[in-house]
Design a protein that fits this description.
Elements: E1 3-5, E2 10-15, H1 22-37, H2 50-63, E3 69-75, E4 78-87, E5 96-104, H3 113-127, E6 132-138, H4 142-149, E7 153-163, E8 169-178
Parallel strand pairs: 5-6
Antiparallel strand pairs: 1-2, 2-3, 3-4, 4-5, 6-8, 7-8
Helix pairs in contact: 1-2
Length: 189
């Protein structure tokens, strides 16, 4: 899909082939553990065992909606970033999806990879005929800043919504982004 090539960074963004192979699951598990260890608010508390992270990935990938999209960014050593798109389950929301688990390995942050992953998942959503995306982020975190920079609209925040990886509470910010203006067309199933 997209890539960046320069002296210090070389990677490719692609759709993860499902079912995922053991190598990809292991690399995704290491990426999730890295996110939790570096303090990212991504649904888990530290310490996160590699086996538990791998089990979560296997369950998430195998149980996903058939039209879910999992993008990964790879460099010469493997997966260094990922983001997910999950179509809404409700029959009256065929135009909508949730974005989840934007993860970039700490060694690759501040390189523009998060921006590229978000643009790639938005493009994939457009190609799928989706018109509205939603997501949430920790208030004050790097992800909140990224989503604002990329033109996402803040709906509001929820105090003490979740816990940081160290167990302290944090507020969450809810975002949406229109990929096309209403009224939406009904995307194919």
């Amino acid at each position: 899909m997209l890539g960046r090539n320069d002296v210090t960074h070389q990677y490719k963004i692609e759709r993860l082939a499902l079912p995922a192979n053991d190598t990809d699951v292991a690399q995704l598990a290491r990426l999730l553990v890295d996110a939790v260890e570096s303090g990212a608010a991504v649904s888990f508390l530290a310490p996160l065992a590699l086996e538990r992270a791998a089990a979560w990935w296997r369950s998430t990938l195998s149980g996903a909606h058939p039209n879910a999209i999992f993008l990964v960014a790879r460099d010469g050593n493997g997966i260094i970033g990922t983001v997910q798109l999950h179509p809404a389950w409700a029959p009256n929301q065929p135009h909508r999806a949730d974005i989840a688990k934007l993860l970039v390995h700490r060694n690759n942050r501040r390189t523009g990879l998060g921006t590229l992953l978000m643009r790639a998942i938005e493009d994939a959503a457009r190609e799928a005929g989706l018109g509205l995306l939603t997501l949430d982020a920790k208030r004050g975190g790097a992800a909140e800043q990224l989503y604002r920079h990329l033109g996402w609209t803040v709906v509001g925040s929820i105090p003490a919504f979740a816990f940081n990886s160290d167990g302290t509470p944090h507020d969450n910010v809810i975002f949406y982004k229109h990929l096309q203006q209403p009224p939406y067309r009904n995307p194919p199933p």
